[in-house]
Amino acid sequence: MTTHAFDIVVLGGGIGGYSAAIRAAQLGKNVAIVERDKLGGTCLHRGCIPSKALLRSAEVYAAMKESERFGIEADGVRVDFGKVISRKNGIVEQLHNGLQYLMKKNKITVYSGIGRIIGPSIFSPRSGSVSVEQEDGEILTLVPEKLIIATGSRPRSLPGLDTDGVRVLNSDDALRLEKLPASAVIIGGGVIGVEWASMLSDFGVQVTVVEYAPRLLPGEDEEVSRELERLLKKRGVTVRTGAKVLADTLQKSDSGVQLAVEHKEARHMLEAEIALVCVGRQANVEGIGLENTDVKVEGGYIRVNDVMQTAELHIYAVGDCVGGLQLAHAAGHEGIAAAEHICGHTVHHYASHQIARCVYSRPETASVGLTERQAIERGHQIKTSKVHFKALGKALVYGESDGFVKVIADSATNDILGVHMIGPHVTDLISEAALAQLLEATPWEVGQTIHPHPTLSEILGDAMLAVDGKAIVV
Ligand SMILES: Cc1cc2nc3c(=O)[nH]c(=O)nc-3n(C[C@H](O)[C@H](O)[C@H](O)COP(=O)(O)OP(=O)(O)OC[C@H]3O[C@@H](n4cnc5c(N)ncnc54)[C@H](O)[C@@H]3O)c2cc1C
Exposed/middle/buried for 14, CB within 10 Å: 0-12, 13-18, 19+? Predict the structure, then answer.
């Protein structure tokens, strides 16, 4: 058996893992990554990037169908789904190549194979070495000073609704669809379910979303959820919130699925060509050798402190496998924090409420900080504002004036507690609100920033000023 010594071994080459590896290499460490599939992980191959590529094609199609609004006549507009898929694959491949280049540039050794953490052994007196089973069956042992676990997550399944990749799909399967279905039942109205609902609906698929909670995007501000539901319904999406899927009623046939849901004390039968199960993500913590360590797993996630150390201080864990907000930018940030802590740097502590949350539906939603309900529950005396996109010249020019920006501030301290947006390009606009929170700016300071005109960004300035009744447009 061959052994290799490293300063740091990273188990998992998703955004959490590769960000940690690159930062550690930049800081002079000898680093290896073990990846069983493809560098880039969920975000690049099964998540953020491919889904956003499809969403963009769907959005272009929807815009072309409505082009008459802009004085443009376009006849015979149709979807060539094969080309949509090729475009998506091209983007993923380009970024995958870029990532492989970054590994070489930073002299990071990449091992392709399944990694498993081993306990104290002849190679090391403490746990944290990694055995790698390569494709050809050869086993290597990597012996690091520090280990970073970044094994990510996979789609959660719903008991009784096993996915078969044909009639009952999860988000991984959906990205492999070769043709669009005529209709889809989406089970779960969280971020992934809402994005798929919006995309499929824009492609002309008949969509029903079933959500157990009383509203879509249950973690977001209630006003945003309500507006999103209204706008999806306006586009023809059927939304059933507060509805329970009766998994034992599932029937599959050659043409589709049938499934009952309990909604408002009545039972409804739903039929569609496919059912798409989007009920969250489960951390990859099994089968990676944690039982050979004293690393603690709680509620299905690896427990870490605020610098990403597990109960064994030389073993770190980052990204989806530690829970919290399972977002790519959170995973990347945690990876960098772990690498910097290992290298003796002071790590910037962030609170999860400082991380922006985005949904790339049409319209988009984005938020940072507390919802109105959370702010009140935490005892804040609040002042709020809401400015609608229809008051904004640039939104009217774009032809996308649905939605609003809502600001929640503390009336006593003037702190910005939360910013919630629904409307055009808000997933880009939210960064300014996140920066304002990080810099502990007051609403007045953000409002005083001179936003160029006409831009969509003006709305945040106005919404901040509106908190104190000082906006010009409201
Ligand atoms: C459909 C979808 C859309 C999404 N859209 C967004 C979005 O728009 N914005 C956003 O911020 N987030 C989005 N996410 C979430 C985002 O993709 C994840 O939060 C992010 O990828 C987590 O990164 P990670 O590095 O922790 O884990 P992963 O990306 O899951 O990477 C973990 C890696 O570890 C490897 N691995 C696991 N076990 C082993 C082992 N034993 N040996 C070797 N390798 C192993 C896996 O193969 C994988 O490559 C989306 C997710 C999905 C599913």
Answer: buried
Q: Is 195 annotated as a binding residue?
A: yes
Residue pointed to by tokens 């779960």: 188
Q: What angle separates helix 15-26 from helix 328-342, to the nearest 10 degrees?
A: 30
Q: CA triplet 240, 244, 247: central angle to 5 degrees?
A: 120
Residues in the chain: 474
Ligand 1 mean position to 319 CA, how many Å? Answer: 8
User: What is the chain's percent helix, strand, coil content, to nearest 5?
Assistant: 35, 30, 40
pLDDT of residue 308: 97
What is the per-residue pLDDT for 198?
Answer: 98
Can you tell me whether residue 414 is helix, strand or coil? coil
With a cut of 70, list the residues of the chain below it in pLDDT.
Answer: none
For ligand 1, which residues put their CB under 6 angstroms from it? 11-17, 34-37, 41-43, 46-48, 51, 114-115, 150-153, 171, 192, 284, 288, 319-320, 326-329, 331, 360
CA 286 – ligand 1 centroid, Å: 16
Please indicate if the annotation marks 104 as binding a ligand: no
pLDDT at 351: 76
What is the CATH number that goes with domain 168-279?
3.50.50.60
The rounded Å distance from CA 279 to ligand 1 centre is 16
Note the pLDDT of residue 44: 98
Is the C-alpha dihedral spanning 82, 84, 89, 90 positive or negative? positive
Comma-separated ranges of CATH 3.30.390.30 domains in the chain:
363-466
CA distance to 225, 430, 438, 465, per residue, from 220 (Å): 7, 14, 20, 23
**Closest residue CA from atom 30 of ligand 1:** 152
Q: What is the pLDDT of residue 352?
A: 77
List the catalytic residues: 453
Note the pTM of the prediction, 2 decimals. 0.97
Looking at the chain, the domain(s) classified CATH 3.50.50.60 span 2-154+282-342, 168-279
Q: What is the 3-state secondary structure (H, E, C) of 442-463?
A: CHHHHHHCCCCCCCCCHHHHHH
CATH (residue range 363-466): 3.30.390.30
Cα–Cα distance between 226 and 400 in angstroms, integer? Answer: 18
Q: What class has domain 2-154+282-342?
A: alpha beta
